[in-house]
Amino acid sequence: MTDRSAVDTIRGYFYQFDLSILSVLKLASLDDSIEIECTEDIDIRTATDITATQCKYFAKTEYNHSVIKDAVKHMVSHFKESLTGTKPKVSYSIKGHYASGQEKLDCDIDVDFLKKHFLTFSEGKGTTKVTRYHHTELGLSDADLGEFLKRFTIDIRAKEFDEQYREILGAIQSIFKSTPFSAEYFYYNNALAVIRDLSIKVTPMDRTITKKEFLERINTSTILFNEWFVEKKGKKEHLAALRKEYFTEFNVSPHERFFLVEVQADSYMRSDLKDIFFELSKKWAKLSSREPSPFCPYIHVHGIPDDELLALKRELSAEGFKLIDGHDFQAADFSHQSITQQATHGNGIKIKILNTLSNVEQTLNWITKTRRIYQFHFGNSYFDYDKPAVKHVKIQVAQLSDVKSII
Fold it and tell me: Are 48 and 61 in contact (CB under 8 A)?
């Protein structure tokens, strides 16, 4: 597969996932549901009806009847089984986006049109060429095909990729009363993960979700590192958008900022973590003698062994990078009064290290000034501090270097 065709294929997958998301968002009742890749790509189930929808996205291809012929034949086969009672009675829908050729279907599809363009096909070549009639082989009469057409709708002028995406984000903003950023990076990101997860389940029951359950599952406070979302946005753009939203301030206010950073033993390098310490101090500390309210950030490193944290502190101190950790002398208990002492130009404190999550919580509880928590995690988040007065941003990352790119 060429790079261009691979990109087109990936966009086709995203288009189908997005149509699934849009379909569930548009359900009239919270109890209505969609089924992913059951009878067709998407089955929409309401209290009174089931609609099996197949999705086609060919942004660079001209529409021809042959492009959807197999899909129509499959639907007619299912219709035949519904007549015999072996399959449920459903409605059928095809949605497609094409570069051109839509005028070829600017007519009413009657039984003769259905048979000629969608149900008649050839096999073999030359003298062995045989014309076959799908409806005849299924034993369907013209009356039966007329009944099928009552259940069948087709839209080959479906929305373009970006247009459909904008419609999804608009629907999300309306439902959750969210900002454009939250609609995309929280709700849509989570929605994409939910649909992807459903699509790989084995049984139809496990690939079914109601609108109520869907909205509950995407309404989380964590920005997930969903590889499908990152693939769609591009990793560089993804990290840049997070930096712009949370870590770009023209005039940095003297808030108490807590950065919680996770490390993993199999990929940990001290130099990477040191770079984050230096970057945090450079950007989020103000220690000038002219600063009326000097300050510096707090940091907790989650998952780091005690001996490695101690070695890191020694190395930073030896390099003249002054830090405190709330322990005033050997074997002293942690003191929130000590850790919250003001960093100034005179004392040169560049960063405040919180050794444990308990230290983090104690310090947060002690401080009365404006507080901000920025938690970076690989798997599940590891710290909860749900107080309305404290902004708590949770960002899932793929590797430690992503943190530096974001902050």
Answer: no
Place of tokens 């993993």: 264
- Of 258, 228, 279, the closest CA to residue 403 belongs to 279
Cα 147 to Cα 137: distance, rounded to the nearest angstrom: 17
- Reduce the DSSP state of residue 48 to 3 states and report it: coil
CB 344 within 8 Å of CB 294: yes
Residues 144 and 218 in one domain: yes
What are the pLDDT digits (tens) for 15-49? 999 999 999 999 999 999 998 876 667 888 888 88
Looking at the fold, whether 115 and 142 belong to one and the same domain comes out as yes
Contact 83, 148 (CB under 8 A): no
Q: Which helix (H) or strand (E) holds 50?
A: strand 50-62
Token pair 């983090």 is at which residue? 360
pTM of the model: 0.83
Three-state DSSP class for residue 380: coil
Nearest to 298 by CA among 251, 349, 368: 349
How many angstroms separate the Cα of 104 from the Cα of each of 108, 186, 285? 11, 41, 65
Amino acid letter, residue 338: S
Residue 143 located in a structural domain = yes
State which residues form the domain around 36: 3-222
Taking the C-alpha atoms of residue 175 and residue 36, their distance in angstroms, rounded to an integer, is: 22
